[in-house]
Design a protein that fits this description.
8-stranded parallel β-barrel, elongated, alpha/beta, 28 strands
């Protein structure tokens, strides 16, 4: 989200270790999420909005097919959205939290979505429809979940039915009304404390001031709370993960600052304990390094996903996300004055240079047939109606042009603001409820916005495409199959990996413990029953069937195929095989990869084990065995695959 220059300067100075961090607003002492507030209800008596739009033409839940998001019928659903902020907090961290002047743009949100003091909820929703959006990204803070005091009556002056409610109960009413009015709702954990984001503010990481376990617990609570609300479609895990005073976030190091691992944990718990319908939105890393000329710094965004992508228990629920603002840049923090570097801002780039930056930092993810292939949602971008800088205005036209031409999913920041306070808002309301903003002829942003909203894109049915997903045992298990989990631990003490249900193991790395899963060439190959075979020796290698002479071979029984493997250290410990739903036959071949790559020429799935030699069966094959060596001086990792033709 945008930050005032003063806040930017403070953030950069702190990141440069020139100042101590500011003191964050202390959250209400945490209580168990289940006890914090009464459960959400969707009963008619609890609904607070008056009047609803005609039923939407789309139906939840949403899922993904390659780079596209689709609805329950398999039709494209493009997230054309905006951010209705406020529930994440508005206090800037200086002065008094009770003084509106010390809140972002002089707007005290009281921890609830902005505008409920100025216009009835039904009126707000009608205006949202008029703006053309179909999706609302709805930020919240962890503090909001646990706050038990009611919002002041003045905060809901235009919606008296919400008086006496806690911030979470107001959030409930907003979520319910949005859903009934046809909007897709994406819940967004924006901050930990109810303090304006996004500098050195105590909200840099998901676990700033709280444990990763507490954060994940809150996500399970929120997912369960809205599981019965039909058009709550997504969980946007955390906003703009970034450096604090001393430490950078990372993507895959396995420590307390590992955003990759934390996102994997929360996604796993949401889909298994909370609501399996939800899309899981994982934003890239927003900032690492100290923003000082001569020192390493920049925006990794989604670039780490090229070599380490997420595999969820539902392989068709992953959406990646990125934010782009003109005043920031690939290596520019957005600061002005003290702490500003000489790196280019996005608004300094030509149209072609901007497109290259967007491709390199985010939209490469939409490339088809890769382990990281997923939709990319630009869930924040924006600019003010009062902006006069020609470079900033040109950037907005170039960015919206790119999003339109690439048929991208997007969400503008912000949706609602106060007239005379936040000119960035698409829709602004004065204290009498009068609306101004993007729908007015005088708003210079209108032409670019209309082009973005009306440029034709993919519509209707989206053809199914193969799924490719990687398995990583870098720091622990990677068991993505719910069926395997339900059957228990097949190799206690080992690092285990198993493909998501509906996919099969097709590739392995010689070192590093990586695997590649897919459903290419066939529908779900596995039989409906719960049988599985844990292979620990060569008993299933038939007489005369030595396909890797001199190597130990863990081969599946006849009629079964590989979905998993386990490692103890670097040595193969066991393989996991399951029966096929129909007879498996076909010739077999050995694919070696202990000395060089043994992948198909098309390299489908992409480089799932960067820096390691890899073996991979062809798209029309399945893997039926893993060979390795125990010779002294040789690496004990997988060395060959037995690949057989699909029936």
């Amino acid at each position: 989200m945008p930050m005032p220059p003063a806040v930017l300067r403070l953030a950069v100075t702190a990141a440069g270790l020139l100042l101590t961090p500011t003191t964050a607003l202390t959250p209400t002492p945490a209580t168990p999420a289940s006890a914090a507030v009464p459960p959400h209800t969707t009963a008619a008596a609890a609904r607070t909005a008056t009047g609803t739009a005609d039923p939407a033409a789309w139906e939840a839940p949403l899922s993904t097919r390659g780079r596209y998001i689709v609805d329950a019928h398999g039709d494209r659903f493009r997230l054309k959205g905006a951010n209705w902020d406020g529930a994440q907090g508005s206090w800037t961290g200086g002065g008094s939290a009770a003084d509106p002047a010390d809140h972002h743009a002089g707007q005290d949100s009281h921890g609830i979505p902005l505008g409920l003091d100025r216009a009835p909820l039904a009126r707000l929703l009608a205006d949202f429809h008029q703006s053309g959006i179909n999706t609302v990204r709805l930020p919240f803070s962890n503090e909001m979940i646990h706050r038990t005091t009611a919002v002041p009556d003045s905060a809901v002056a235009a919606n008296p039915q919400l008086r006496g409610r806690t911030p979470l109960e107001v959030y409930d009413a907003v979520v319910d009304a949005l859903s009934r009015d046809g909007f897709a709702v994406v819940l967004n954990n924006h901050t930990n404390t109810s303090r304006w984001c996004c500098g050195i503010d105590g909200n840099e990481r998901w676990n700033s001031g709280q444990s990763t376990e507490q954060w994940a617990d809150d996500w399970v609570f929120m997912a369960r709370r809205y599981a019965s609300v039909p058009r709550v479609v997504g969980a946007d895990l955390y906003n703009e993960v970034r450096r604090d005073v001393l430490d950078d976030p990372n993507w895959g190091l396995g420590d307390a600052h590992d955003w990759y691992a934390a996102a994997q944990l929360a996604a796993d718990r949401i889909l298994t304990e909370g609501d399996p319908r939800l899309l899981i939105v994982i934003e890239g890393i927003n900032w690492t390094g100290v923003p000082v000329d001569g020192l390493p710094h920049g925006r990794p965004v989604l670039t780490p996903a090229r070599t380490l992508s997420h595999t969820l228990v539902d392989a068709r629920k992953l959406v990646y996300s990125a934010h782009f603002y003109g005043y920031t840049g690939p290596h520019h923090s957005g600061a002005t004055g003290v702490g500003e570097t000489h790196d280019a801002r996005y608004q300094d780039l030509s149209r072609a240079e901007l497109a290259t930056a967007l491709d390199d930092e985010a939209f490469f993810v939409e490339e088809s047939g890769r382990h990281y292939t997923a939709p990319v949602w630009v869930s924040e971008f924006g600019i003010g109606s009062g902006e006069t800088n020609p470079a900033a205005r040109a950037w907005f036209g170039n960015l919206t042009g790119y999003l339109a031409e690439h048929d991208a999913d997007f969400a503008f920041w912000p949706l609602v603001g106060f007239a005379g306070h936040d000119d960035w808002a698409l829709l602004r309301y004065d204290d009498t409820g009068h609306r101004s903003g993007i729908l007015d002829p005088g708003d210079w942003r209108g032409a670019a916005w209309q082009r973005l909203m009306t440029t034709p894109g993919k519509a209707g049915a989206v053809a199914p495409v193969p799924v490719w997903r990687m398995l990583s045992t870098d720091h622990g298990d990677a068991v993505a199959s719910l069926r395997v989990r339900a059957a228990g631990d097949w190799d206690p003490g080992a690092y285990k990996a198993a493909c998501p249900d509906g996919t099969r193991l097709l590739g392995l790395s010689h070192t590093g413990g990586r695997g590649l899963c897919t459903d290419t060439g066939t529908a779900d190959l596995r039989a409906a029953d719960a049988r599985r075979t844990v292979v620990t020796d060569e008993r299933y290698v038939p007489a005369g069937g030595d396909w890797a002479s001199g190597y130990t071979k863990y081969q599946c029984p006849e009629g079964e195929f590989l979905i998993g493997y386990a490692l103890r250290g670097e040595r193969v410990s066991t393989t996991l095989c399951v029966p096929a739903r129909s007879a498996l036959s076909g010739a077999g071949r050995t694919v070696w990869f202990d000395r060089s790559d043994g992948r198909p020429a098309d390299a489908a799935g992409g480089d799932f084990a960067y820096g390691s030699s890899k073996g991979q069966c062809a798209a029309a094959e399945y893997a039926a065995g893993i060979a390795f060596t125990t010779r002294v001086g040789s690496h004990p990792g997988p060395a060959a695959l037995l690949c057989r033709t699909l029936p």
